[in-house]
C-alpha cells in the first residue's frame, strides 16, 4: 500500500505518454518515474528513513510531484505547507509534527530558516535553489540517476502518509492524518465515477500543498495516465488560452477561478473551447456564475464537496447526468452521508442539520489530538461542522457553516487564528473576525476591534501588523474600529450582531 504505485503502474503501462508539461518542458511517465527514483535514492542516502516526517514547502513546479512521490517511495510521511506561510504559522507545524526533515525552495526560505534555526532536530534540510545558507543541501545534489530503480516501501494500512494542518474555530491548527489508503482510495473512487479520455489534459491550477490539488490535479491524473499541464499559479489569461488551444481539457477549480474565467470570457468569448468538464469545489458556487460559465465555455460544471479530513472529496453531482445547481450532489460510492441533529439522529428530508460522512477517505486521526479526534469521528462518522439539508432524492445542499470558517478565494481562513494575532496588539481591547460576502472571492476577511483608552492606532496600522504575521490571503482587508462589540447575555461576543457598513 503506497501511493507511489500509481506512478510505477502507469509508467509500466504507458511509459512514453507525457505526464507533466511545465513552461515548455514535457516529462514522460518514464522520465518522471526515473527522476523520482533518483531522488528517492538521494533522500535515503541523506538519512531519511521510513516513518520520518518531512515538511514539503515548495511552489508549483515538477519538483513538487517528484519530491512527493520520492518521499512516498522512501516510506516517509509528508507535511505539505503553503510556501508563503510566515514564521509564526510554521513554528507550531514543525513542533507539533516532530518533523525530522525539510524540503523547501530558495525563494521562500527566510521564514522557514528562521524557524529551523531553533530546531536542530530537523537535521535533513533540502532546498531547491543555489547560494544556500550553511546547513542546507541543494535539491539538485540529491538526484542519483546512476542508482537505478528504487524499491517502493510497502506501508501498513494505517501508516501516516500526509499530515494536513487545518484549524478549527478554537485553538491551534490540528494535523489531519491521512494514510496511503485514504488518498489512494479517494482518487480511485472519484476516477471511477468520471469519464475521461487518454488524451485529456488536466489544467493544474490548484495549489498542490492543498489536499484538493493533490487528489484531483495530481494523484488522479497519475493514476489514470493523463497529462498534467502544470501552472505556477492560477493566471486567468493563461488558463483561458489553454482552454482555447488544447484539444481536450479538464479543469478542477474553486469558485473564484470560475468567476474570473467568466469575467474574461464575457469580454472576449473563447474562439473555441476544448474544455470537457469542470469540477468546482472549496466553496459554494453562485448559480448565476455556474450558468454563465457553462454557456460561455460549452462545458458542464459539476459541483462537489469535500474537506481535508476526507482526503478531500466525498460528495459530487453525478457525472453524465443533469446537475442540480446549488447542490453539492450525492455521496460518491462507497461514501455515505447523513444530515443529523445535535443527538446525531437523522432529520427528515428538507430539514437542516449537520452533514456527517463516512467512507474510505476519512482521516485516521488528528495528530496528537485524541480528544478532538474522538469528537470529530464519534460514532464512526466524520462530523463536518457544515449545516445542510437533503432533498427527497438524496441531493445535498449546504446551508451554512456551523463553524466560523471563512473561505476566501478557495482558501480557508480561521477567525480564531487572526483574532489571536489581533489580541497580541496591546492597543486592542476586543476583536472579532468575520467573513463578508465578496463577489469575486466568495468571502472577504474583516475585523471589528475595540481599542484601549486613547489609542491612536488606525485601521491601516492594524492591517499592516496582521499582514506581516500571516499568509497574504489571511489578513483582514476590512478593519472597523468600534466603541463596543455586541455581546450575549453571558458576555460572549455576538458575531452575527456585528455590522461593518
Topology:
Layout: H1 4-13, E1 18-22, E2 25-28, H2 29-45, E3 53-57, H3 63-74, E4 77-80, H4 87-97, E5 101-105, H5 109-116, E6 124-128, E7 137-138, E8 160-166, E9 174-179, H6 180-192, E10 201-204, H7 211-224, E11 227-230, H8 236-245, E12 249-253, H9 255-267, E13 275-280, H10 287-297, E14 300-306, E15 313-316, E16 330-331, E17 336-340, E18 353-358, E19 365-366, H11 370-376, E20 382-390, E21 396-401, E22 406-408, E23 411-413, H12 415-423, E24 428-438, E25 442-451, H13 459-467, E26 478-481
Parallel strand pairs: 1-11, 3-4, 3-5, 5-6, 6-7, 10-11, 10-12, 12-13, 13-14, 25-26
Antiparallel strand pairs: 1-2, 8-9, 9-19, 14-15, 15-16, 17-18, 18-20, 20-21, 22-23, 24-25
CATH architecture type of the largest domain = 3-Layer(aba) Sandwich
CATH topology of the largest domain: Rossmann fold
Query: Would you identify the CATH H-level superfamily of the largest domain?
Result: ANL, N-terminal domain
Alpha carbon gap, first and last residue: 54 Å
Q: What is the number of E strands?
A: 26
Rg (CA only):
23 Å
**Number of H- or I-type helical stretches:** 13
The helix content, as a percent range, equals 25-40%
Widest sheet, order of strands: 2-1-11-10-12-13-14-15-16
Secondary-structure-derived class: alpha/beta
Provide the β-strand percentage band. Answer: 25-35%
Give the biggest sheet: 9 strands, mixed
Provide mean pLDDT, rounded: 94
Question: How many structural domains in the coordinates?
Answer: 3
Amino acid at each position: 500500500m503506497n501511493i507511489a504505485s500509481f506512478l510505477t503502474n502507469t509508467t509500466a503501462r504507458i511509459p512514453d505518454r507525457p505526464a507533466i508539461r511545465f513552461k515548455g518542458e514535457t516529462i514522460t511517465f518514464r522520465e518522471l518515474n526515473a527522476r523520482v527514483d533518483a531522488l528517492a535514492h538521494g533522500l535515503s542516502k541523506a538519512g531519511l528513513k521510513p516513518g520520518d516526517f518531512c515538511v514539503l514547502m515548495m511552489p508549483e513546479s515538477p519538483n513538487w510531484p517528484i519530491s512527493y512521490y520520492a518521499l512516498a517511495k522512501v516510506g516517509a510521511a509528508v507535511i505539505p505547507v503553503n510556501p508563503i506561510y510566515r514564521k509564526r504559522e510554521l513554528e507550531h507545524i514543525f513542533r507539533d509534527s516532530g518533523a525530522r526533515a525539510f524540503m523547501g525552495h530558495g525563494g521562500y526560505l527566510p521564514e522557514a530558516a528562521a524557524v529551523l534555526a531553533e530546531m536542530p532536530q530537523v537535521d535533513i534540510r533540502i532546498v531547491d535553489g543555489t547560494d544556500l545558507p550553511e546547513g542546507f543541501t541543494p535539491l539538485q545534489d540529491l538526484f542519483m540517476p546512476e542508482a537505478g530503480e528504487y524499491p517502493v516501501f510497502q506501508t501498513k494500512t494505517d501508516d501516516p502518509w500526509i499530515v494536513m494542518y487545518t484549524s478549527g474555530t478554537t485553538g491551534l491548527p490540528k494535523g489531519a492524518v491521512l494514510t496511503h489508503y485514504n488518498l489512494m482510495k479517494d482518487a480511485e473512487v472519484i476516477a471511477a465515477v468520471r469519464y475521461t479520455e487518454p488524451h485529456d489534459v488536466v489544467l493544474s491550477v490548484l495549489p498542490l500543498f492543498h489536499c484538493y490539488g493533490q487528489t484531483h490535479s495530481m494523484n488522479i491524473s497519475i493514476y489514470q495516465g493523463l497529462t498534467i499541464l502544470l501552472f505556477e499559479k492560477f493566471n486567468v489569461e493563461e488558463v483561458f488560452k489553454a482552454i482555447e488551444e488544447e484539444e481536450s481539457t479538464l479543469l478542477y477549480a474553486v469558485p473564484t477561478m470560475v468567476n474570473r474565467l467568466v469575467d474574461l470570457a464575457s469580454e472576449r468569448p473563447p474562439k473555441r473551447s476544448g474544455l470537457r468538464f469542470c469540477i468546482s469545489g472549496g466553496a459554494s458556487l453562485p448559480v448565476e456564475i455556474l450558468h454563465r460559465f457553462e454557456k460561455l465555455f460549452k462545458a458542464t460544471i459539476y459541483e462537489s464537496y469535500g474537506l481535508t479530513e476526507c482526503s478531500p472529496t466525498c460528495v459530487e453531482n453525478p457525472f453524465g447526468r443533469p446537475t442540480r445547481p446549488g447542490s453539492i450532489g450525492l455521496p460518491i460510492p462507497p461514501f455515505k452521508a447523513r444530515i443529523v441533529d445535535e443527538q446525531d439522529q437523522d432529520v427528515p428530508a428538507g430539514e437542516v442539520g449537520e452533514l456527517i460522512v463516512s467512507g474510505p477517505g476519512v482521516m485516521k486521526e488528528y495528530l496528537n489530538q485524541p480528544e478532538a479526534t474522538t469528537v470529530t469521528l464519534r460514532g464512526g462518522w466524520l462530523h463536518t461542522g457544515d449545516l445542510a439539508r437533503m432533498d427527497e432524492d438524496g441531493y445535498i445542499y449546504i446551508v451554512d457553516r456551523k463553524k466560523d470558517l471563512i473561505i476566501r478565494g478557495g482558501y480557508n481562513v480561521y477567525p480564531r487564528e487572526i483574532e489571536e494575532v489581533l489580541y497580541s496588539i496591546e492597543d486592542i481591547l476586543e476583536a472579532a473576525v468575520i467573513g463578508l460576502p465578496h463577489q469575486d472571492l466568495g468571502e472577504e476577511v474583516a475585523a471589528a476591534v475595540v481599542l484601549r483608552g486613547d489609542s491612536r492606532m488606525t485601521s491601516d496600522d492594524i492591517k499592516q501588523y496582521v499582514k506581516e504575521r500571516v499568509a497574504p490571503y489571511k489578513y483582514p482587508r476590512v478593519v472597523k474600529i468600534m466603541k463596543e462589540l455586541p455581546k450575549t447575555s453571558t458576555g460572549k461576543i455576538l458575531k452575527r450582531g456585528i455590522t461593518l457598513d
